[in-house]
Each structure stands twice: as C-alpha cells, then as structure tokens.
Write a structure and sequence with these properties.
2 copies of one chain form a homodimer. Chain A has about 550 residues and is α/β, with parallel strands linked by helices. In chain A, helix 1 packs parallel to helix 8. At the A-B interface, helix 3, helix 8, strand 21, strand 22 and helix 10 of A face helix 3, helix 8, strand 21, strand 22 and helix 10 of B.
Chain lengths: ~550, ~550
C-alpha cells in the first residue's frame, strides 16, 4: 500500500518536506493542508514588497522562471494535493488521522496518515494595550498583512510608528524610509535588536538609522493607541510622549504555533516550541515537525533555542522529506545566524554575542575591527565593522557580528562556516580566502579581526571598548585621549572632548615629551590600527597604562 | 645587543614581516633592502590603475587614510630603515652578512644580520621569440610596467594582444575592454586559465569574454612580433594567423626569484621556489623566506605547490615577523584560492579542480549548480554557477569553482573555509549561512550545490556533464534531448538541435506518451532543477536511461 503523508502548513518547511518526499517516493499519497489563502511563499520577501522593489506579492510565490507555486502547480508538477483555506483542527494519534476543516465550506473531515508533518509556523506576539484593534494597526506575518500595509502607503500614510525594534520591525523600517515615510521605532528594551546584537553594535545601527532620518526610541513603552474619527489609529502614546501616526506596525516578536501539537499531547520544549530530536521527529515517532514551530539546537552551546528563520525551515523540509520516506537524515542544529539589510546598511550575527557568552559562563575576549570591504583604493570600497567574540581559554570563536555599508554578510557566512567546525582565531587568521582588490583587502577583514584578538590574547594589544571609554568620560575620569590621526582626518571629523591631545602617528616618536607620563593614555585613530601601533611605541618608551580605543572613530557608537 | 634583522624585498611579505617584527621587538635594528624605486605597493591593484579606476599609481602605495608608505613613513612610523634602489647581491651565511649594492651610486657594502628574510618575489616568464624586445611590448610585473601600459593607452593604443590566458592576462584584458580597446587573447593551451579552471568553467568565462567583445584564441602559439618603422610592435604572428597590434602584453606566468637563495646554497623545492618549513624557515635556520619566492603546502593534498598570491605573501609576513623575534608561529598552507573580477564577471576557484583531482587519483563526483545569488525576486539578483568537486569515497569537498555576474566570490570564501576543516557535502548543506532575500536564496547556492552532489551520491540524481553531452551530439548519437522549460523560456533562448523534444514540466505527467521509451533521454531546463524533477518522474513511470544535463542552459559552455 502506498505511504500516506499529510503535511500541516504550506509556507516553507511544509511544501519543501512534501516535495522532497515525492522525489524519494513516487508512489506516496501526499497532501498539504494550509489554513491561509496563499501558499509556498517567501515570507522574508514581504518587506521588499512593502518597499515596492517587489511589485506584486505574487512574485513571492513564483519559481525563478515565473511559474506560480499554487495548488495546480503542486498537483501537475509534483503530484501533491494541496488543500488551501483548510485548517487542521485535531490529531487522532492512535487512529493516525487528522481532522481538517474547510474554511470555505465549514465542512470537517478526516485525513489518514502514516506520517504526519507539522509545519505550523509562528504567530506574532500580541500587544495587550488599548487601541490595538484600530484600523491601520498591522502585524507583518502573512502576505495579506503586507498587502494591507502597502495599500495604506499607497493611500498616503506617511507617519509610521513601529512598535518593537527587532528583526521584522527594522526590515520594515527600511522599507518605509525608502518610500519617504517618517518612521519612529519604539523599543521597550534599552537597545534595538536586544536579543541579537551587543549594545555597541546596536548603537552603530541606531546611529545609521538616525542619519537616514528614523527616530529610534529605546527604553520606552507604548501604552495606548488613539483613534481618529474613522476608527483608524492617529496617535501612539508611550510612557514618555505622544507620537502622531498614520499607521502602526506591531512587531514585538513571534511565538511558535503549537496548539495542534500541544492538544495532541506532543512534547514541547522549554522554549515553548515543539521539541524534536536530531531527525526532526517529535515525541510521536510518526510525527515530524520543522520550521518556525520547532526549537533548534545551538551548535555552539548545545542548548535548545528558538530562532525561527526561513533558511532553517527550508533545511528542515529536506531532512523531514528524507525521514518520512525511510531515510535517516540528521539536522545538526544552527548557530543562530541572522542577517538583514536596511537601506544601504548590512547587519549580521552568528554564534553568541558577548552578552550571551558572559551569561553562559564564558570569559570572552572581543574586538571591534573596522575595515574596508575591499582594497581601499578600489572605487566600490565601503566600510564595515566586525565584532568577534572569542573564548579566552581556548581561542575558539564563539560568535561574530558585522555591520556597515560594506560587504558585512560575506564575513558572517565565513564566520558561520568557521564556527560550525569549532575554529579558533588562529584558524580564522590563516584561512586561504579569495583575494583580489574588488573583493577584499590582502588580509581580509575577518582575518584582521582574528589577528587583533590574537594580539590581545598575546598581551600585545591593550584596548578599552567604546562603552568603557564612554563610562570614563561620563564619570569625569582624568586621562589623555590621544588622537594620532592625520590633520585632514581631524579637521573632517573632530572628536570633541577636552581630554583630546592631537599628535599624528608620523610625528609621535619625535613628540613623545608632549604626552603626560603620569596619566592613563587612551589612543584612538580612525579604526584603531595606528592607535595600536602608537600603544606599542609608547610602551617601548616606558609609558605605563596605555591603551587604545577598540575600533576607533569608525566603531564609536556615540555622537562625536 | 639589539637583534639585527635584514629583509630583502620591499613589496608585500617583506614590509609586513618588518612591521610585525617591530611590533614585537621595539629594540631590533630592522632594515629593508628593495631593488626597485617603489615600495610596499599593492601589486594586485595594477590592472585597476591601467583601467583608470585607480587614478594614480601612488594610490597603490598609500595607507587607507592616504599616507604614502615610503621610506620616510617607515622610518618615522615604524622605525624601520628602508634602502631603496638597492640590490642584495650576495649572502655570506657563515659571516651572517649580506652584500648590497646601491643602484644609484654603484657602491657595494655589507649589512650584518642575526635574522635574514628573503621576500624576493617573482619575475615574469620570458617569451623567447623574435620581436619580444620591441617597443610597446610589456610585461605587467611592476608599477613601472603599469605606468608604461597606461601611457600607451593614453597615447591611443587600441588594438591589444595579450599573450597568455592566465590570471594576469585576463585581469588586464578586463581593463583594456573597459577602456574601449579591441583585445585578443592568445593562449597556447586548449583553454584559458588551464591550471586553474576545468574546461567547462573556462568555457563559460570564454563565452562571457566573447560577449563583451574580446577575441579568445586557444591552442594557438605566438611565433613572432613584427615592428613598425618606429621600432614598436605592429603585428603578432601566430601559428595560425597574423593579428594587428598597437601594444602587446606578455603574461605567460611568473617564476620565483631564487638566484640569491640558490647562490647562498639554500634548498629549493621541486616547484623551483625556495623550500621552507611550516615556520617559513629556509634550510638555514637564521633565514626565513615568504611571498612569491617560496613554495606552499596544499592543505587538501599535503603536496608542495607554487601559487604566488598577495594574500599569502601578507600572511607570510606576519608569521615571519613572529618567528624572527623569538615566536613560534606556524603557517599551515593554502588551498590555492584564486579569485578575480573581469568587468562584471566574477571568477573564483579553491581547492582542487576536477582535472587535478583525477590526476591525484581521486574519484571525483562533480556538479554544475547555477543559482541566482540572492532571492530571485529581489531586484539585484544575478546568476552564477558553482562547480563542486567531491571525493566519492568520503564525501569530502576537494574543491570548488564559481563564476558569473552574481556574487560568486562569497561562495568561494565559504568553500575555502569549509575545505580548511575537511568538510563533507553534508556539512556544507547544513551550514547555518546568513539568509535574507538581498543576500542569498533560502537554501544558499553552496548548500544547493552540496545537495545536488548528495542526490548524485545517493543514486537519485543522474546527470551528464555538458562536455559529455557535447561529445554525444558531435558524434551523432541518437537520443532525445527533452526540454522541460516554459514556452517563454524556449522562445527567448531556443536550444537548436534536431534531437530536442519540447514538453514543459507542468505538462509532462500528462504527455508521457510523447517521449520515446526506446531511446536515451537527456533532459534539460534553465538550471537543471526541473530537469532533475523530470528525470525522477520519468523513472517512476518506467523509463530507463534517463539523465539530465548538469547545469542546464545556464552552465552550457558552448553556443546554443
């Protein structure tokens, strides 16, 4: 008898699992059940539809050659039955059938299965405040949401408030700015992307957002939405102010859709998502789960984490497709790699950030290493900054963050690959990466960052982070801030602080007597390279307490 | 007493070693001896100076903030003495001194050393034909060469012949085309980049070059250069034709400068370059060597290879700087990663190509996997093709090649990193790479390529390479070429062969009876994804001898 496979959820992991199963088993009877109207779409593309660079939401449902992946496509090309607008309401595990309900007709009926796949996705965390149900208040979870948001923009919405400074909030923010909107982001935590980035990296991103005209409000809680006479939102009230709004986007995170799994008695993990083993099998051996409804294993720490991402969902789909057709494919886990683009700024993270590393008991060594993304004399060169987080004891790379207008994401991918294999900073510095002037510096930015950490581990490089220097400045410490840049750089971008003493690196050997020997010296330049050189020079001349500012001016996350 | 360090060679590895040594030892007396006029320059940037995107050759000698790295810079900033226009003529190993000669004054004198560093670089292979010394016949080895070439262009040279289809020849070719020149490349071997790329990948590049107007002549030998009345070249004679030329670039490879080392009795390797151990120490423990004059260890095979590249030279410099100041830093080797940009086309290779793998006794499984470089609906999406070479026995990645207008080099860096750690295709498919629509497809191109190989290793995917299909076509084999693309694709880019039968994938299940069952079927589409799907479908319906064309139309290296 032919194997019966039912897949609940038709966005990413579900269709992928079904398609893979079909390739491995031409005889199986495969059915996908999808609650929504649309199907097999690229959810991550929605911000670009809002921005307008993707013209029709249908494009997110097309194959690369323009064929729409609808029910007819799945039937004709893959011999897979798709039940659209159909909800799975109950699973009978002993009877091995799932009860589904057509949202068109209201009719319920049963589907038998040998293997059942749950790919039920995630839903946006609701915000329990007054006015949350007003018109022009949207989540961004489904293509229907994206359509409503774009319609509002086309009807003239200009003042946008985004509640939540997370991934979806920021991607959407970029889309709105590109369309000429006035955008305010309100984040309740003390930085944007609090779960993702360390504060100084989030600070660099905030600085960029302010430069392109966005208002970023952190440590601020939205308390109420006020309506206009037509029932649409007109004002956002926070614990600190009122903000006018033509439209509000609520993006305070997502949670896994686990009702069906929980009701069926499947085991959930501590993260709240469905628990699966390395075969993506649930606590019921005939049920598999993947995508945004399951938790993952963090390959750096071995812990269970909830990181819902389209890339993982697609990988899950292939693994599940194997295992429901007799295969034995394992999914090793993730390193939490997350990347996004906001206008011309690239942001990425993989592995642990410093906060997470400290929480987990590591003693991390970090660096901020700004670099051009290719030979500085090549016309397309753009700057970006890498933060590496390294275990002091072993030299192993725990994680990396990379931000800037330069090619930051290539380096995240290199780091994600290196972390997968437990690479140390030495390994990273020695990688034989591709070098030609249009692609990288002769020593690539990741290798440079690794070398900075090696210099710190060897005791040669001594740095203070921007956060540490800012604290010293704010508490009025007495120290010399030694600026070793060229005259032209100083004129273009002065560092305004009374402690600053200016001696360009080329003159430092001759003018050592101008530097007070009785005080701490914190040296800086554009990126910290020359400052490091100056640190060594001063030390060789008997100066004590000399450090450089990690990352220099480029990675300074505060106003200058 | 202070340590005396003499460095012979002032381009890349030399100055880097000297600078690193200074950072580790503030007291050392460090001297760099450089024969040429210019110093510490980015040799790899010369094609871009020729193209004109780099305006002044001095830019190649500047730090990122515009400070020229000249002798004065090294003295003031690094306390390193640079002897320019000075040649090292003899090494007295027992006396530990090196005799140098000023090319300005002719004066010779000795420099004592405790540690001597050889960074003598490479020289262009001479071409022993009549006319090689004519005017407007250039190598591209030094900034002086680049200046002469650019001057000739500015004086109106239009017809350029490049002898040698290697790395330098091709990079220069791009520069000339960008300036509106008519360029002919003459390569004696039967493909361009013969040591680097497999033939079908070289074929894709040749196709691109022809599209942008270059003439590519392979299996053709230059026999003579003819002069005009002023003593400049006017014609290139080959064994097949005559080609008019206003300028000729001779780029048939480079060889290591080892005269000084050989005369001093140092051991040379089988590659002809200076032999060094993992500390970059020569056969004389007080002499180190790095950069283009030494051979490297290939980390994939353990063999010694000669791959002179600026990135390796810079890494060598740091290692040598450590080891001549009491450190014990090892350099593990290279994977031969080579990348370059020619106009809008990106070309890269890491590890072994298929030819090399076969020569070394591996049984490689390969794939040609074209892909967009980011979500296909994102406006900047561009195509490129990855060729993976994998060891059939172990599933280990032996090498990768990547070409196209899309972001091919990011994937080369991912592969270089993976290869460093002995990754298998399964590892590669599972990497947690950064996914967002502007950066990649949900399953990134490298993971997709890895999955294609996994499908081949599992016996699911059955493909013929373009070379194999071309042979079958050329020898008049009787088989069905089944085109499963959409009607619009077929109209836009027909595949002109009488064997072609057209049935779009969506109609294939219903029209199976149109496909002859008694003949071999080779299926193709744009990239081979749908063709693979069709292969499985036909097989499930009892068809025997069904294969798909690896890489589809996109990776077809011949005329359509």
């Amino acid at each position: 008898m032919n194997r019966k496979i039912v897949v609940v959820g038709g966005v990413a992991a579900g269709p992928k699992a079904a398609a893979r199963a079909r390739r491995r088993d031409p005889e199986a009877e495969i059915t996908i059940v999808e609650k929504g109207e649309l199907f097999s779409y690229a959810g991550c593309g929605m911000p670009f539809y809002i921005e307008g660079v993707v013209h029709d939401v249908k494009e997110l449902m097309c194959t690369p050659v323009g064929v729409v992946r609808d029910a007819s496509f799945f039937r004709k090309v893959k011999d897979i039955q798709v039940l659209g607008r159909t909800e799975a309401v109950k699973i009978d595990r002993s009877g091995k059938k799932v009860t589904v309900k057509s949202l068109e007709t209201g009719k319920t009926y049963d589907l038998e299965y040998d293997k059942l796949v749950l790919a039920t996705g995630a839903y946006p965390v609701p915000l329990p405040i007054e006015g949350i149900h007003l018109g022009k208040v949207h989540h961004l979870n489904k293509p229907e949401d994206a359509r409503s948001i774009r319609k509002a923009l086309e009807e003239g919405a200009k003042k946008i408030v985004i509640i939540g400074g997370g991934l979806i909030g920021l991607e959407t923010c970029g889309a709105f700015i590109a369309r000429g909107c006035q955008v305010t982001i309100v984040e309740v935590m003390d930085q944007i992307l609090p779960g993702l980035l360390d504060p100084e990296i989030a600070g660099l991103l905030s600085k960029y957002l302010k430069n392109v005209g966005a208002r970023v409000l952190v440590s601020e809680r939205v308390t109420k939405l006020e309506e206009d006479e037509t029932g649409n939102v007109k004002k956002v009230l926070t614990d600190k102010r009122e903000i006018e709004a033509d439209m509000v986007i609520v993006a305070i995170g997502v949670r896994p859709n686990v009702d069906l799994a929980r009701d069926a008695g499947l085991k959930l993990g501590a993260t709240g998502a469905i628990a699966v083993n390395e075969y993506l099998q649930t606590s019921d051996p005939d049920m598999y789960a993947g995508g945004d409804c399951v938790e993952s294993t963090d390959i750096v720490t071995g812990r269970k984490v909830y990181v819902p991402l389209g890339s993982t969902a697609n990988k899950h789909g292939r693994v599940i497709g194997d295992n429901i057709t007799g295969g034995e494919t394992m999914f090793p886990g993730i390193s939490g790699t997350t990347v996004f683009k906001i206008l011309e700024y690239n942001v990425g993270k993989t592995g642990l950030n410093e906060k997470q590393a400290v929480q987990l008991g590591y003693e991390p060594v970090t660096c901020l290493a700004p670099s051009p993304d290719c030979a500085h004399y090549y016309p397309s060169a753009k700057p970006f900054t890498i933060k590496l987080v390294v275990d002091k004891k072993t030299g192993k790379i725990l994680g990396g963050q990379s931000v800037g207008s330069g090619e930051a994401i290539k380096r995240i991918d290199i780091l994600a690959t290196a972390i997968r294999f437990g690479a140390t900073v030495r390994d990273l510095a020695e990688l034989d990466l591709g070098y030609a002037p249009p692609y990288s510096t002769a020593i690539d930015a990741v290798a440079h960052a690794a070398n900075v950490i090696r210099n710190k581990l060897d005791g040669m490089a001594k740095a203070l982070t921007p956060l540490e220097v800012k604290v010293k400045m704010d508490q009025g410490d007495d120290f010399t801030l030694l600026d070793v840049r060229t005259k032209m750089e100083v004129e273009q971008q002065p560092f305004n602080d009374p402690r600053v003493k200016y001696v360009p690196l080329g003159a430092l050997r001759e003018r050592l007597n101008e530097i007070p020997r009785d005080r701490e010296v914190v040296i800086f330049c554009k990126t910290s390279l020359r400052a490091y050189e100056a640190q060594l020079m001063l030390e060789s001349k008997g100066f004590k307490h000399v450090k450089f500012l990690d990352g220099g001016i480029v990675a300074w996350p505060f106003e200058l």
